[in-house]
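Progress narrative, work stream C.
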Amino acid sequence: TLVELEEWDEALAAFQIVIKNNPTDGNSHFNIGLCYFKKDEIIDINKLKSLLYITPKPFSAVRLLHQKFLQ
């Protein structure tokens, strides 16, 4: 997959298409946050916080928040 290949820009674009068609897809929201994190780009903390409510991977989302903002 694009994530496994670390093709962050392409993966981000793909996940954004999924979100446009299915705004409640928690996996894609999580992966968008992951792409921004891996690209070391700052995104709105509130967007990352929202992952905690919609992602099926809440512990991964918490870890991502911690790594980005608490170190």
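Work stream C, second folded protein:
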Amino acid sequence: FGASKNSIVITHVGIITEVVSPQKVLFVHASGKRGVVEDNFMHYHWQEVFISATRPNYYINTHEISNLLNK
């Protein structure tokens, strides 16, 4: 997420925790005022400041870590 609408600099991150419906996608993030919270990603605020998403590849990451540990 960016700091404001149309931002291209990522200033905030979150992790999707549950997809309840197409209109309700919950994610966890750290709020400066509210601490660690779960919010609806589909809320207009998050849609306006959204920049990018990625899904980590578990196999590649664990394989790379295993290779590093075996050196």
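The chain is about 25% helix and 30% strand. No further action is required on this item.
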